[in-house]
Amino acid sequence: MASDGVRVLCVVPKSQREMKMRPETWAELTEKFEVIANETERNWTSEELSEQISGCDTVLTGWGSPPFTEQVWIKADKLKLIVHMAGSVKFLFPNDVVQRFCVPRNITVVSCAHALAINVAEMTIALMVMAARRIYEHIQALREKGVWKDKDLPTNFPTINGSTVGIIGASRVGREVIRLLRAYRDVRILLYDPYITPEQANELGAVLTNLETIFSESDFISLHAPLTKQTIGMIGERHFNLMKEGAIFINTARGKLVDTDALVRALRTRQIFAVLDVTDPEPLPADHPLRFLPNCYITPHIAGAGVYGYFQIGEMTLKALVDFFERGLRPEGAIDWETYDILA
Question: Among residues 20, 225, 261, 309, which one has the fewest Cβ atoms lying within 10 Å of its Cβ?
Fold first, then answer.
């Protein structure tokens, strides 16, 4: 039986929905609510969304979902809740849309970014280990050269245990990385984030400091800041010049946070290492020097991918609907419009 006749419009294509929702989760959602679903394998257009949204209490969006145009908002006569079954909502709801429609209509928008943060944090730790132990090169030497232990490669590696790790940004991902680091021994965690206090950092298990200290003292530096007008290019030459020999810089956030040219110069002239899941531009041109530098690993923006986090999106979505419509609660992941400018 539907929950008090609440109508849910799921615009997410069928294959994307099935990637994020276990069959039993989808079955429970369709049992509790009256659901209209996109059963195609493509994203709807804004026109198709406007044709379906009338009378719907909530909309489920995802990667590639159509923009909420003025025509969509005209037809959205009952809309109260939007659950974005992905991370950032800013491409769907730029500031002008927020101020014209979301705020005046008291629309609650939920992001499932925390579910993806779990995947990104796991990948971040994996990249730390892979780069420190030069795993890729050892596999490559064995496979392509037939060399059991390549003498040109190190066999005594930096480790997370006993190291100093610098975290830039106490975002969802940053906090999740800090949580995972607690499993290691004798790890000193430094944190830079202008929006939290030393007491809050201490509660997370980190020491709040500045960027200069992060780059000069850390063995591993992991970037998790949001991309805003203020943070574009926030990491540049002066930071890379402070890094210790052998230190590893990891970016699983956004490529535009980093001055790419400065990173190239630093990697060419210093004995440091970079691991990039994101780049600027993305993807890099085929002839870009970062593709060929031996002290740089690049992965194709896959940190957020993974079965567990994807299914957590489905769980978050169902819980958001139940909390909002059945329990009268503000759902986990609901956007605070007052701090929207500093969100990723």
Answer: 261
